[in-house]
Amino acid sequence: MDGDTLFTIGDLARRTGLTVKTIRFWSDSGIVPPTDRSPAGYRLYDLGALARLDLVRTLRELGLELAAVRRVLDREVSLTEVAAAHADALEAQIRVLRLRRAVLRAVAKRDHSTPEEMDLMHKLAKLSDDERRRLITDFVDDTFGGLDANAEFVDMMRSAVPELPDDPAPEQLHAWIELAELTQDPDFRAAVRRMAEYQAAERGRGDTTGLHHDLTETVRDAVGRALDAGLGPASPEAAAVVDTLTAAYARTFDRPDDADLRQWLLARLDIAADPRAERYWHLLSVVNGWPVPPSLAPVFGWFTAALRARGA
135: closest CA among 176, 194, 97, 196? Predict the structure, then answer.
């Protein structure tokens, strides 16, 4: 076949698999103009038009709008630039579709869900990474703002932000929804603020020992053994555990191990006893795919009850 071969619209349709209507529309739009006309006035196309038609079909199948196709064909913009821009647009669309799928899967796994709950899930799932980060930043600012709180702890709160995957599992989506609602709960904010105020007051009285990780491990180990042994917090055997732990607190805070220390310790434990604080870190771990930390609520609950049983 030589370069002088001309094709009718019907010929192009048979060669490309496109409909005559589609080819005529693209021709009328000037995207694939005819090369010539027959004596009877029918449009004719050469091999260059056939190649142009194949390119148009490929770009359209990839999702490019006709306006973008025309700009490529007219060399107003390079194919590379259009492809990159379109790939970015598709990436955004894919992310939205994945989130919609995650919302629907999460709703399907619930025993019941109202339209309002589904709408909230969809809105929160669509938040960008920056918007999720800002949600946590606002929560931290509102909670610790203006206080001489432990800088290490506040920095940890700021840096531990939820990173919801593009294709989250239903449990990650549920955890993110609950976490977002929790940070907006005025009662929870007030409870965490009270904890922060207590910490600030303690720092004002000279507590500069940090986050007390060693003490937490000491309590976890001692009470864990008591729980494994089946010791009740009011049992006589629990007294030795309490004595060991109050002695550890006395050493850490450089205080006498007396009744005042036990009253102070009980008040400290009561301030930190809100289970929602631990729930916050649990939810954040689920969202980010981190190992979920074991709950310390049974440990410190036992310790608090044992202190009360000893008359603290």
Answer: 176
* 181 phi-psi bin (left φ>0, alpha ψ -120 to 50, beta other): alpha
- The three state secondary structure string of 151-215 is HHHHHHHHHCCCCCCCCCCHHHHHHHHHHHHHHCCHHHHHHHHHHHHHHHHHHHCCCCCCCCHHH
3-state DSSP call for residue 47? helix
Model pLDDT for residues 39-96, shown as the tens digit of each residue: 999 999 999 889 889 889 888 888 888 888 888 888 888 878 877 877 877 787 787 7
Q: Is 36 helix (H, G, I), strand (E, B) or coil?
A: strand
Task: Confirm whether pTM is higher than 0.70.
Answer: no
| CB-based contact 293:217 (threshold 8 Å) | no
What does the alpha-carbon distance between residue 169 and residue 166 come to, in Å, rounded to a whole number?
Answer: 10
Distant-in-sequence, close-in-space partners of 121: CB < 8 Å, separation ≥ 6: 103, 106, 107, 173, 177
- For residue 255, give Cα distances in angstroms to 82, 250, 286: 71, 5, 39
pLDDT per position as a tens digit, 21-38:
999 999 999 999 999 999
**Which of the listed CATH numbers 3.40.190.10, 3.40.50.10490, 1.10.1660.10, 3.40.50.300 matches domain 9-76?**
1.10.1660.10
